[in-house]
């Protein structure tokens, strides 16, 4: 086990022989994957292949689903985050998540950011921390004069950047994004992609997307998932995005990228 930890210490997060179950159904099987730090990795593949299931596994969001369990390991700083001694709340602070549809709290713009800070016991310098988070999410200039307004009054793209700011406020190392642009128009989508690129200087970003163009534009690395005959999701191919999209090694990957899949 020590060798395993040593070999993965330079990665942001690593999985080894990861199987994910919902009750008796194996939804994902045999995933071994190393994520590069401070890079954007896209997880692509057809519907039902386990992309979001894998993503939620990285900060233990699947814990909230009755009957969900894993075998194998998910290593973060050499520690299996599913070890019984590990506090999942701490993991979710260090590995934040942005969901498919913007989900701001029905509170003010300011309180959306401050809430996460307070929950994590951060009470001092709230004003500066709120501003810093909104600056990082490229939203400050648009909302600085209306922090007391309801977050629900923002546009869809602004709401999603607010949710990103909320995740950033507690200083995570990794940001998970589950199809964060699927509910946004093209202009708002490009803003989120530009923001991801800016954030990747300091954060590791893992994004699930069904949008091939987005994966090609925004990510450094791509993992392609498909379904095995038993309907379990499997990872088919992983590599630099440029290689996956221009010279895939696996024919199934090539068929999916070119639109001939299925």
> What summary fits the major beta sheet?
6 strands, mixed
Number of helices: 11
- Total beta-strand segments: 10
Our Rg estimate from Cα atoms comes to 18 Å
Determine the fraction of residues in helical runs and give it as a percent range: 25-40%
Describe the structure.
A hairpin with a 5-residue loop joins strand 9 and strand 10. Helix 4 crosses helix 5, helix 5 crosses helix 7 and helix 7 packs parallel to helix 8 (186-199). This protein has helices at 2-8, 51-57, 88-94, 109-119, 126-136, 140-143, 156-168, 186-199, 212-218, 241-246, 251-258, and strands spanning 13-22, 25-35, 40-44, 68-76, 79-80, 95-98, 174-178, 204-208, 221-227, 233-240. The protein contains 11 helices and 10 strands. Strands 6-7-8-3-9-10 form a 6-stranded mixed beta sheet, with helices on both faces. Strands 2-1-4-5 form a 4-stranded antiparallel beta sheet, covered by helices on one side. Residues 1-6 have low confidence and may be disordered. The chain is of the alpha/beta class and 262 residues long. It is globular and about 55 Å long.
Throw out a few tags for this protein.
disordered N terminus; six-stranded mixed sheet; four-stranded antiparallel sheet; alpha/beta; 10 strands
